[in-house]
Specification:
The chain is mostly helical and about 270 residues long. The chain has 9 helices and no strands.
Length: about 270
Amino acid sequence: MNLLAPIRVLGELTNNVVCNLVLGLLLVFRTNSSYDRYWEGRKAWGDIVVNVRNLARTIQLCIPVPTETEFQRRQRILQMLPGFAVATKLHLREVSDHQELAPYFQPEELAQLQQSRNRPLQITLWIQDYLQQEFQQERMDTVRLLELNQFLNAIIQGLTACERIRQTPIPPAYLIYLRRLIALYCLCLPVALVNQWDWWTVLVAGIVGFILFGIEELGRQIADPFGLDPNDLPLEAICATLAENVKTIAGMPGFDSNPPAPPTPSDSSLRQTH
């Protein structure tokens, strides 16, 4: 009987309001922390998408291209913008393969990205260099340069926010303690239920354990929102949509540096009415 006394005490703890409250608070903190990371990651990617669209739109409409060479150069920069999003996705997933980047960059650019430790940041350097050269050639004024730099800085800020989430996981000590507490609770629960539920105790304890471990597993899956799990952020769809948006923007008529041709007598506006 004395040997069974500690087991009964542990079983009674599962009926204690304080113990149940502590376990519930730990589970709530776990899920809230994980969802905060998931939502912060989604907001960071939303900022990247908004500022890439604004940057592409402003470059397309506000930077003149008097020659074919300048036109092709501007198109190359516009093509880098969705490439930045893809590079950010690969960077967060720590994938070194450059196959997904091939449609957006030249072979020599891919070689430079291969050697870079931060590929998205390297791409922003190329974009910044293009903007600075256009400013030095007086194709845009200081106000326009500051506007474009603000968009570019906001893109880098979104990248930094994603890196902060990726490189700062929830402390392992907290996760280990929570899992041990759930396991201990599930082991002691049948002792508290057996007198009332008899053989149904196995089913009831199994359901309770499934719920508790399921909540903990849910928090684990969404804590890193940039992976490949079904519950992670749909980064492939986001990158594909952004690439389509930039493609649409690049197909718009850009700023024409030449003045419009004067009207000709054949225009209907100049025809005399009788």
